[in-house]
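Known limitations

Structure tokens in this collection are predictions and should be treated as such. Users comparing against experimental data should check residue numbering before alignment. To illustrate the layout, the record for Tat pathway signal sequence domain protein is reproduced below. The input appears on top and the generated tokens appear beneath it.
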Amino acid sequence: MNTPTFSRRAFVKGGSLAALATPLLAGTALAGPRQTPDTSATGVALHWLSGKRPAAFAGVTWGTPWPRGQVAAGSGFELSDSHGHAFDLQSWPLAYWPDGSLKWSGHALAAHDATDVQYILQPVAQPAAAGKPLVTESATALVLDTGPLRCVIPRQGSQLISEIRRQGQPALLGGELLLRVQGDPDQPVQETRHYRSEVREAVVEQHGPVRAVIALRGVHSAADGHSLLPFSVRLYAYAGSSALRLLHSIVYDGNEQEDFIQGLGLSFQVPLQAPLHDRHVRFVGANGGLFGEAVRGLSGLRRDPGEGVIAAQRAGRATPPLAEPVASGLGYIPAFGSYRLLQAHPDGFSIAKRTASGQGWIQAASGERAAGVGYLGAPDGGVVFGIRNFWQSYPGQLDIEDAHTEQARVTLWLWAPQAQPMDLRFYHDGLGQDSHAKQREALDITYEDYEPGFGSPLGVARTSELELQFIAATPSSERLLAIAERIQEPPLLLASPERLHAAGVFGPAWSPRRAGEEALESQLSWYFEFYRDEVEQRRWYGFWDYGDVMHTYDGDRHVWRYDVGGYAWDNSELSTDLWLWYYFLRSGRRDVFRMAEAMTRHTGEVDVHHIGPFAPLGSRHNVRHWGDSAKQLRVSTAANRRFLYYLTADERTGDLLRAQNEALRTLQRVVPARKIGQQAAADPQQVNLFFGIDWGAVAAAWLTEWERTGDDAIRQRLLNGMRSIAAQPHGFFSGSADLHIDSGSFQRNDSGQLYVLHLSAVFGLAEICGELLQLLPEPAFERAWLDYCRLYNATPEQQRQALGQPLPKTNLKQAHARLSAFAGYWHHDPALQARAWAEFHAGEGGIPRPNQRMREIAVPAYLHPVREAEPVSVIDQRSGSTHDANLSTNAVAQWGLTAIALLALAGPAR
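Generated tokens:
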């Protein structure tokens, strides 16, 4: 079916609502699965993720799903609160159902006094007439006007923003990116090279009356013309708002042996006119504390200026006229024009200040964690500035310079110049692994898949969120803390788990919490909270690390195996991302969303190569996120990132999804399983793919692109792949074949061999195939997939009857219980559903006896007291014996996904 593509602008401006069809859940085109038609009203109740009204609200963007056939493409929308008050709304399509109706819509709500905790989103026949766009364009610049702010953004040059005016008065000048790079820090003498942003492209990505998005792309350039670190910065603004959000992404393109980043940040100038004693500096602690001083302090002097003066200065108000002798003696009171907040570690920050360049720094304060939010200004206005996840992404730094002059400078350092330089070198020298045989031997020892040249960070990326808010006066403590809370915890509107489920999105293998599921729900909650708390206990923080978790525990040392080959960082192994997202869909919990969000940001950026010979593949788990030589689609898969895109309408995540559309072409050169026998296709127009971990990722990317655009060519490639897998002699059990890249069709694998890989279905294939059967009905593919689901955990005799021989010894049978459950669900087969529960509880290849027991490890067994999970019983796949083992992220993620799926597909827990 050729589904039309609608532009965002057309969606906002035009179209009428066709007669609403009876809502159909995904999957109703097929006779197999159970049907539960949604007969509810078309309006959707939305709530704040935090469960409360957002602090210092400055606008919000979110995504909402709709059941198949309910909302016609081109429809308009209205948003109202519980009192019936309607709001200006900007809307656009995010995804379509196969019939062309809207599946996901994106929405933007402007800044207003957010006094309600719930809203109603309603499709309407006629969209409201579009208002005046926030952005006007000229040949040389873009002008963004929110009402309170007027921002001038040059199309090219060193400045991201040349000027911001608040209510007509200059508030910011010369906003630019700064980069400092040095050579090998192990050498005695180093020269620092200075770079500035060079914008090469400025594009208005969203041109609406409520929300504007401007994308700036370029590189950091030195005076000699050398460039480094390509960047993209998206500027987000809402009508009526005095805040500007910046989403900053960099890609590392340096030589890790020579280019050590010493500082990376955003810098701008702030005009100041008030007397020095009426200029105010603020820093916010993550504990809700405040550091507040004036550039020229008047308290503590030998001559008391008076209670009224001190009270006004402390509160940030203009001081009353100064009396003598203080008035004539101001020149003898030092004015501290420079302040520096350094978060060098997640458990420690310091604030220092000095009067001017060339003078000494003095220690002003210290603490554990800073919120990464500061303020500089006066009673007639100033700027609040902040970096989200500041202490979590250490080392960070906030600088204020020259605040004693008419033009101060503020720099938000994403990598602190006062910290050690960024060292991205591999952590060992190869250990003599100069041959395939030695690399296989080493893999057997440390689980690290090493190969010379494959451990380079070339192409890895990092995205950071920054915010600026321009205000009319030095804020009260309460208001500054509210702004800081918003920066660190951006508001988000969402539908309930029940409404998300009723829309039929993200497949059938999940359901909201229901009565009677308390035992499994308790264990699901415990496993999540264990990892949430481990992030804090183990300090899994840092610029390149925040968002990920570790792979395997070392009970002997009472640490995770942070330094052991392939056992260190998890890098999405066995779908940790999917576990968190499906648990969020089920629970609606704020803390689950935030952990899943941080993981998606990390795994989509740091664990994937975005340029270079490995782009856009991801890297298998390793001590270094990018260090493993297995560059694979299973890590970069779109399956892990669709949730964040659809729930938040985030453009950067949309870029990462689209980058995966042709990722399979890289596999022509970088064969992921070359060390275990996978061969490159002989035909340059083809690529060899496994039907599971490879094609599952390809299918996720193509499915997402088809949903987003309605592109029939993508749909046909996807359908060709499905049909040609089904046409294999043994379907999915044929294992792999050469795929023609342009058509998406597999060649026939006539080897006659059965091939089953225990990893095939545990990197998103099961979840994506569940959606494909609903969205692209293809009887042969349906049979092939259901055969795989039914037979993987079947008895050898059942396998022999169906395939002519039993399957080679399989693994991860507990995880594959959800495949059994899916087949039972689709075929309405209670016996198969009961088998799935039995497989799950047996726990083979997983966790047979989950528990919630923790134990205390006291000093001196470890550096400090820690709480660790008690070992659990597992079944050895080789011997069949049961033994105790430490908790494994792989096992927990698959246990969680399987529990959630069985509760949805196999009826009540048995």
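For this record: The mean pLDDT is 93. Residues 533 and 539 are 10 Å apart (CA to CA). Please report discrepancies through the issue tracker.
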